[in-house]
Design brief:
Structural class: alpha+beta
Distance between the termini: 64 Å
Low-confidence stretches: none
Radius of gyration: 24 Å
CATH topology of the largest domain: Beta-lactamase Inhibitory Protein, Chain:B, domain 1
CATH class of the largest domain: Alpha Beta
Number of strands: 4
Number of domains: 2
Helix content: 40-55%
Strand order of the largest sheet: 1-2-3-4
Shape: elongated
Oligomer: single chain
Largest sheet: 4 strands, antiparallel
Strand content: 15-25%
CATH architecture of the largest domain: 2-Layer Sandwich
Number of helices: 4
Length: 136
């Protein structure tokens, strides 16, 4: 039987160090990604308080493609309350850009790398259940 050489021990040590480094890098990258994902709404869509007039008159321009995005998180967190009637949300936000029986959506513009909307979900009694920023 042959005895392991110093070269084999050195190669194994380098392989173990590289494996540990790759595992640590993967864990750190995962934490950063999911941290960003969890805070994305407040970082990207949370810059300004909701302004009813600005919301109603907002339109995309070459400089401001995410024309309603800055107000979306404030709407979700502070303005739109669970249990709010659908009619009250429409009085506040205007006519939705899209709607069906239990959902309405308001266009936020081209935010980040894609088009986003603020979607409102209603129950059978037309009361607001929850809101979500969606990507198209």
């Amino acid at each position: 039987m042959t005895e392991p050489t110093d070269t084999t021990d050195g190669s194994m040590r380098i392989l173990k160090i590289l494996s540990f480094g790759f595992a640590a890098f993967t864990v750190i990258l995962t934490i950063v990604f999911f941290g960003w994902w969890a805070m994305k709404d407040s970082l990207v869509f949370g810059g300004e308080e909701f302004d009813r007039v600005r919301w109603a008159t907002a339109a995309p321009t070459a400089e401001e493609r995410c024309y309603r995005g800055d107000m979306a998180n404030d709407l979700k967190q502070r303005v739109l309350a669970r249990g709010m009637p659908r009619g009250a949300t429409m009085m506040l936000l205007g006519r939705p850009d899209w709607e069906d029986a239990n959902q309405t959506e308001y266009d936020l513009g081209h935010c980040l790398w894609d088009t986003h909307g603020l979607r409102l979900y209603f129950n059978e009694q037309d009361l607001l259940v929850y809101t979500r920023i969606v990507q198209h």
